[in-house]
From TrEMBL:
PANTHER family the UniProt entry points to: BETA-LACTAMASE-RELATED DOMAIN-CONTAINING PROTEIN (PTHR46825:SF9), D-ALANYL-D-ALANINE-CARBOXYPEPTIDASE/ENDOPEPTIDASE AMPH (PTHR46825)
Domain of life of the native organism: Bacteria
Main EC class the enzyme belongs to: hydrolase
This enzyme's EC code(s): 3.1.1.103
Keywords: Hydrolase, Membrane, Signal, Transmembrane, Transmembrane helix
Protein name per the record: Serine hydrolase domain-containing protein
TM ranges: 608-633, 653-672, 692-712, 724-744
Pfam families per the UniProt record, alphabetical: Beta-lactamase
């Protein structure tokens, strides 16, 4: 749900992104799984079967997790303090970490997005001067056995928890309808030392919830009750506005191409009392459609929630009830629910969410667009869902979908930029390199989650961690990237650099903004503060400011095809989309196919806007400080201003207005800092402060008018060059403030954002 795709922290809190899958490379089939090393899953429960007995108490002692355990031993791994981890032991049976200077391509995760860009499933990048092994020269990949997989994950997760300050995590891996690994690490409740239990502890998977929405939609499509290409207004009791006469369709909602701007107001509610009925929420916070439908990818929580509401309207069941009856119960997912708050039988098993390392738990996160992110689930329940998706819609006796419907969900439906990944009907794909991977990521303030399916191999992986977002994302990156690299390796092909590298690099160089943004409200500030820049280097490689290696260094890319770049020392791809000779978008398979970077129009390019606005604020702040000082000096010297009564009156008004302008900028800085501290600040609690900021913004128009009149008056008065220059500078600074107030959409009739 929460988003993250940029260096700007507060922007990261606004946007959420999804997981991208990986593409197909020709490769030998992996060695078969040894049945003796696999734990068979119990058959799914029928809807009438009693819930299983709760497992017994788990040890609360803190101790290292053995690297090799039987499938039965140590299913629950208590938290491991940093001092208890033996680096030598962790090195056993684990792919060595890259040497200094070597970058590991990141793994794509949620979220919304903002924002730190999600990472990619990729091979480790080589250091400068390192020799990359050619295909066929790498050591053979080990078989995917339960014992080897458990040893590998045991060597990775506990150290990641200790290093990143994560409270706990759950990991489950399935293959061919069986569970290879189901394990908890760390604690679900730090204060009570309650361990993470993959069969009992509920986590909050965030936007992974959307996969249940898309599954429900396809169930109704199978029944002939929904048409993916019909106007969504056919199914609603309120109207979604057209874009230039073009309606929105369910297919566009599922591919995040309906054209909605970012919508964040009331994304989270402060408590259960502030939760809104789904229909009312969608009606009241309907975002503008700022892109032509089917043309621009723009990830939308609103669009997913709207699809969930359509399921509710057409089925005649509240969305929570529908999912429970048609998806959760058939799969035996009795420890999962979309309900808020959780039913009493599940609430006691919910993991506490920790937004900061060592901080207090933040409590249950209430999501207003519930279908888009309110799921609470155990890892073992998510295994059942993955098995159904990998099993062509069937798991045990449960049939969620017919095989052709599952194929439609997973297959490439739209490829925004040629050469990069496609998006299915709600499932993000990685289909440009490596084994085909599909899935979705999710993030709330306290949980970072990811679900990845490798349909060609019948493998699914779900991981969820409680704790700081950056550490959770690092865990996902290393775990998913490591599992794919270890068991399904596919070296990047060697491609020569094109002679057009410098020409095309200069063509795409410039300032860009994320298509997942707002244009009609104050969140347009995010486009200014949270954009990206592309530059071409002396060696004709290019870099994107927001695409970085895990250690924070900008990735470098070299052109290997027309307007297609490959990461230097890695296999991530970057590509541009052109209309004629004009670049209209740039993206990478390091980010989801549900968003791209688009050039910033020159009239609001940060290259000049940020310096001008910074100078304007500095001039006005200096005036506020120096005017009293100058008054004291004149009083000491017993000198007057030498102005007539009208000029003196305008000067006083100007001084008051400049003070208001400084207060305006300070207020906006405070508002943005509050949003950065918690996305829950967007629950409407800041609306009073936003109205005050809008009032000060309107006052800036009067201030600029007085500043111009005052400067004109001084220009006609007896010569005093310094005073004239100061008056003109202040007038220009006030004019720049007015421009920012309206260009950044800080004054709007309605507070919909």
């Amino acid at each position: 749900m929460k988003a993250r795709a940029n260096k700007s922290g507060w922007l990261a809190a606004l946007l959420a992104a999804g997981l991208c899958g990986a593409g197909v490379w020709a490769q030998p089939a992996p060695r078969p799984v040894d049945p003796a090393e696999v734990r068979p899953d119990p058959p799914p429960m029928s809807a009438d079967a009693p819930a299983p007995a709760a497992p017994g108490a788990f040890p609360a002692a803190t101790m290292p997790v053995p690297l090799r355990t039987s499938p039965v031993e140590a299913r629950i791994a208590p938290a491991v303090p940093a001092e208890a981890i033996d680096p030598q032991a962790l090195a056993l049976d684990v792919i060595p970490a890259p040497k200094a200077g070597t970058a590991r391509a990141p793994v794509l995760i949620d979220l919304p997005p903002p924002i730190e860009l999600p990472a990619a499933l990729a091979e480790p990048a080589a250091a400068d001067g390192a020799i990359l092994l050619e295909p066929g020269t790498r050591p053979p990949a080990p078989a995917v056995s339960a014992a080897d997989l458990e040893a590998y994950v045991d060597g990775l997760v506990p150290s990641a928890l200790a290093r990143g300050g994560l409270a706990g995590a759950v990991v489950v891996v399935v293959r061919d309808g069986r569970t290879l690994l189901s394990k908890g690490y760390g604690y679900a409740d730090l204060a009570r030392r309650r361990p993470m239990d993959p069969a009992r502890t509920l986590v909050r998977p965030g936007s992974v919830s959307k996969l249940f929405v898309w599954t429900a939609v396809m169930q109704l499509v199978e029944q002939g009750r929904l048409d993916l290409d019909a106007d969504v207004n056919r199914y609603l009791d309120f109207r979604i506005r057209d874009y230039a006469g073009q309606p929105a369709t369910l297919r566009q909602l599922m591919t995040h191409s309906a054209g909605f701007e970012e919508s964040t107001k009331h994304l989270f509610a402060r408590d259960a009392a502030h939760l809104q009925p789904l229909g009312r929420y969608l009606r009241e916070v309907q975002p503008q459609r700022i892109y032509p439908p089917g043309r621009v990818p723009a990830y939308s929580n609103y669009g997913a929630a709207l699809a969930g509401y359509i399921v509710q309207r057409v089925s005649g069941l509240p969305f929570d009830d529908y999912v429970e009856r048609r998806i959760l119960a058939p799969l035996g997912m009795r420890h999962s629910s979309f309900r808020q708050p959780l039913p009493k039988g599940l609430a006691a098993d919910l993991a506490q969410g920790y937004a900061t390392a060592g901080g207090p738990p933040i409590g249950f996160e209430y999501v207003n667009p519930a279908p888009a992110g309110s799921l609470s689930a155990t890892a073992q329940d998510m295994a059942a869902f993955m098995n159904a998706q990998l099993g062509a819609g069937r798991y045990g006796d449960a049939v969620l979908l017919q095989p052709h419907s599952v194929q439609r969900l997973h297959a490439a439906n739209w490829r925004p930029i040629a050469g990069l990944d496609a998006i299915g009907l709600g499932f993000f794909r990685r289909d440009g390199r490596g084994p085909l991977a599909i899935g979705h990521g999710g993030a709330t303030e306290a949980f970072q989650s990811m679900l990845v399916l490798l349909p060609e191999h019948g493998v699914g992986l779900f991981v969820s961690a409680s704790g700081p977002g950056r550490a959770g994302r690092a865990l996902h990156r290393d775990l998913v990237d490591g599992v794919i690299r270890r068991y399904f390796p596919s070296p990047a092909p060697a491609r020569p650099t094109l002679a057009t590298a410098r020409l095309h690099g200069e063509q795409i160089a410039g300032h860009y903004e994320n298509s997942r943004s707002s244009a009609s409200n104050f969140l347009a500030i995010a486009r200014l503060l949270g954009g990206a820049s592309i530059r071409v280097h002396d060696d004709a490689t290019v870099s994107v400011s927001t695409l970085r290696t895990p250690d924070g260094r900008p990735k470098r890319w070299r052109e290997v095809g027309p307007y297609l770049w490959q990461e230097v020392g890695g296999d991530s791809l970057l590509a541009a989309k052109l209309r004629g000779q004009q670049v209209i978008a740039v993206s990478s398979d390091d980010v989801p196919a549900a968003m791209w970077l688009q050039p910033v129009p020159a009239w609001r390019s940060p290259a000049w806007v940020l310096p001008v606005l910074g100078l304007a604020f500095a001039l006005q702040l200096a005036a506020v400080v120096l005017w009293p000082v100058a008054a004291l000096v004149r009083r000491h010297l017993r000198r007057g201003l030498g102005l007539d009564a009208r000029a003196l009156r305008w000067r006083r008004w100007l001084q008051a207005g400049v003070v208001a302008n400084v207060a305006l900028v300070s207020l906006w800085a405070w508002i943005l800092a509050r949003i950065e501290s918690s996305v829950r600040m967007l629950d409407g609690g800041l609306d009073g402060w936003l109205r005050l900021a809008q009032g000060l913004g309107l006052m800036s128009v009067a201030t600029a008018t007085v500043a111009v009149l005052y400067a004109h008056r001084l220009w006609r008065s007896p010569p005093h060059r310094l005073r004239r220059a100061c008056a003109v500078a202040i007038a220009l600074a006030c004019a720049a403030t007015v421009w920012a107030v309206f260009a950044l959409k800080t004054v709007t009739p309605a507070l919909v954002y």
